[in-house]
């Protein structure tokens, strides 16, 4: 692969006997992180996010968290709160990009550029406000002195855009007003925003249930399982086309929000098709925005934020970190002196090397009782290895770093698009269920479905007259 | 500044944040022409303010995401070129 263009090529073609088949090829550069091998952890943390445009904050948090874990460093509660807040706001920004720029296009309307510009501005203001007294995304930041007033203004600006341009009402009010599919339909019919109009279009055209797939949600992952797959000779294949228990899995806003009342009701009625997926993005946006004041209050108080220590089905928690930090003298991962044993404990054993900072995205309005974490098998990581998983806008993002003698010896990134657009994943299996309509209709529904699954790269969706020779 | 390899001749990367240099502006439409090596592309400036010819911007699916300094652009392009060389190896 010598093409950096990072593009998905999705070909739908008609089977001779009827029905559709699909091929998905990715030219995404999944091995870009290897460029950091040989560099120091501080430089890696500073430079790696600059490679990524759409999820730079989630990448930065995963990177700094993995490096801290590998070095045996434990970030403060305030740092963890600030990072979680930044990742959630980035997720809201990415969803707003879909809702303000992409969804209007699917309706034949113009993009809402000025509104999205305000969103981008609010994100920049928030980042500056939180970094006022130390960068929360840097390695070794001793403490934060965030400008809380400026942060509050930025979050208010973000919520105001969503209220005026997407939901038609404040996010908590929208969540309270749309607990079921029936109420969502009423909202869509009585609200003058592109998001409401798109849901009306999908429902009125009979497209709501299209694109259903049997691909299950990616279960919570243990450090043992991740380490086994992200190290060793099979790691490249895994990060390019990951399977779990030998089968594809999904990690997305839909799987994250499947416990929310509206998403659960839609799933019961329509399955995990187009309408449910579009609604899940709206729900996630509203849940995040409704929870931001609580997040900021927790940050101000220096306490664990809302959702801390709660679990949920599916992908697991917002941010989880595991580190293998040695104690043996003379070979510390940071290049310093080793102090004792070669391997640190990880997981939920309470070992000091374990940094448990996860928390479910949930608003005060969530009606699902918090579920205990499912049991995970955790084991020791090799000395100098750090693993971090972050719930990024499109699903679970995992970083694994190995640091030896103060230098990065290995770096792997597993991104959610690799699960969701796996050649046999949720996108592929959903696309083949689309009706064998005329090309124009099929192109439109297919485009809607791919947008709803939201790949992190551009895509080409083509309707092919006959099977690809390469993919009979 | 030109990229070190011919990686960029096909298309602008999407997932990776690629800096591109603004070579022309159309204030009437809020569009710009950006250059990355030999490739030029029309992008929207709707999401950034006060962009001028010669600025470097990060590009994502047809939009400029934000301006970065020439030094930052050079560092990022070098990283991407190195990553591409690794991938091609």
Order of helices and strands of chain B: EEEEEH
* Strand percentage of chain A: 5-15%
Oligomer: heterodimer
Number of helices of chain B: 1
Shape of chain B: elongated
Low-confidence stretches of chain A: 1-5, 308-316, 326-332, 335-375
How helical, in percent, are the residues of chain B?
A: 10-25%
Largest interface, Cβ cutoff 8 Å: A-B, 32 and 35 residues
Specify the structural class of chain B. Answer: alpha+beta
Radius of gyration of chain B from CA coordinates = 13 Å
Mean pLDDT of chain A: 84
CATH superfamily of chain A: Cytochrome-c3 Hydrogenase, chain B
Number of E-state strands of chain B: 5
Uncertain runs of chain B are 1-14
**Percentage of β-strand residues of chain B:** 35-45%
Overall average residue pLDDT of chain B = 79
Care to describe what's here?
- The complex is a heterodimer of chains A (472) and B (89).
- Chain A is an alpha+beta fold.
- Chain A has helices at 41-47, 56-71, 77-106, 113-130, 148-167, 171-177, 181-190, 194-204, 223-230, 235-240, 253-256, 261-270, 274-301, 416-420, 426-431, 439-453; strands at residues 7-14, 20-26, 319-324, 385-392, 395-404, 407-414, 458-464.
- Chain A has one domain: Cytochrome-c3 Hydrogenase, chain B, CATH 1.10.645.
- In chain A, strands 3-4-5-6 form a four-stranded antiparallel beta sheet, sandwiched between helices. Chain A has a three-stranded mixed beta sheet with strand order 2-1-7.
- The radius of gyration of chain A is 22 Å and the shape is globular.
- Chain B is of the alpha+beta class and 89 residues long.
- Chain B has one helix and five strands; from the N terminus they run E-E-E-E-E-H.
- In chain B, a hairpin with a 2-residue loop joins strand 4 (56-60) and strand 5.
- Residues 1-14 of chain B have low confidence and may be disordered.
- Classes of the chains: A alpha+beta (472), B alpha+beta (89).
- Chain A binds chain B through residues 1-7, 28-29, 31-32, 34-35, 47, 50-54, 56, 101, 111, 113-114, 116-117, 120, 124, 417, 456-458, and chain B through 7-8, 10-18, 30, 44, 46-49, 58-61, 63, 65-66, 72, 75-76, 79-80, 82-84, 86-88.
């Amino acid at each position: 692969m010598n093409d950096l263009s990072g593009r998905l090529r999705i070909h739908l073609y008609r089977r001779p006997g009827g029905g559709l088949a699909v091929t998905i090829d990715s030219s995404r550069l999944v091995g870009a992180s290897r460029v950091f091998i040989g560099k120091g952890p501080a430089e890696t943390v500073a430079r790696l996010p600059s490679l990524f445009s759409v999820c730079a904050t989630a990448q930065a948090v995963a990177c700094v968290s993995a490096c801290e874990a590998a070095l045996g460093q434990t970030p403060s509660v305030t740092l963890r709160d600030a990072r979680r807040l930044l990742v959630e706001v980035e997720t809201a920004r990415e969803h707003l990009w879909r809702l303000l720029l992409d969804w209007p296009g699917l309706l034949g309307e113009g993009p809402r550029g000025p509104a999205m510009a305000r969103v981008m501005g609010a994100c920049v203001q928030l980042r500056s406000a939180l970094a006022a007294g130390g960068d929360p995304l840097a390695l070794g930041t001793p403490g934060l002195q965030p400008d809380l007033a400026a942060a509050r203004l930025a979050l208010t600006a973000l919520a105001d855009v969503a209220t005026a341009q997407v939901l038609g009402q404040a996010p908590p009010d929208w969540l309270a007003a749309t607990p079921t599919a029936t109420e969502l339909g009423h909202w869509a019919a009585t609200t003058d925003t592109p998001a409401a109009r798109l849901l009306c279009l999908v429902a009125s055209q009979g497209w709501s249930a299209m694109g259903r797939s049997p691909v299950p949600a990616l279960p919570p992952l243990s450090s043992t399982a991740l380490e086994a797959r992200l190290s060793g000779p099979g790691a490249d294949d895994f990060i390019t086309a990951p399977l779990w228990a030998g089968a594809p899995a999904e990690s997305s806003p839909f799987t994250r929000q499947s416990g929310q009342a509206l998403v659960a009701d839609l799933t019961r009625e329509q399955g995990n098709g187009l309408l449910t997926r579009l609604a899940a993005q709206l729900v996630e946006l509203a849940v995040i925005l409704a929870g931001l004041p609580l997040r900021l209050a927790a940050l101000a108080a220096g306490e664990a934020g809302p959702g801390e220590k709660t679990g949920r089905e599916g992908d697991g928690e917002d941010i989880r970190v595991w580190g293998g930090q040695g104690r043996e003298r003379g070979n510390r991962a940071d290049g310093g002196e080793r102090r004792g044993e070669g391997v640190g404990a990880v997981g939920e054993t309470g070992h000091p090397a374990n940094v448990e900072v996860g928390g479910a995205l949930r608003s005060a309005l969530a009606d699902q009782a918090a579920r205990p974490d499912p049991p995970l098998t955790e084991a020791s990581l090799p000395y100098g290895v750090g693993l971090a998983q972050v719930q990024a806008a499109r699903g679970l993002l995992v970083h694994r770093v190995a640091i030896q003698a103060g230098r990065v010896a290995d770096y792997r990134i597993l991104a959610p698009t690799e699960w969701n657009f796996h050649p046999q994943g949720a996108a592929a299996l959903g696309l083949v269920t689309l009706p064998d309509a005329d090309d124009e209709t099929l192109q439109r529904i297919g485009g809607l479905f791919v947008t709803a699954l939201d790949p992190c790269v551009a895509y080409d969706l083509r309707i092919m007259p006959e099977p690809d020779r390469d993919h009979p | 500044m030109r990229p070190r390899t011919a990686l960029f001749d096909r298309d602008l990367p999407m997932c990776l944040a690629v800096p591109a240099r603004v070579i022309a502006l159309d204030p009437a439409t809020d569009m710009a022409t950006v250059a990355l090596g030999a490739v030029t592309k029309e992008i929207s400036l709707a999401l950034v303010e006060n962009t001028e010819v010669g600025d470097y911007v990060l590009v994502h699916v047809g939009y400029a995401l934000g301006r970065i300094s020439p030094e930052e652009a050079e560092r990022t392009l070098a990283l991407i070129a190195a990553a591409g060389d690794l991938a091609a190896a």
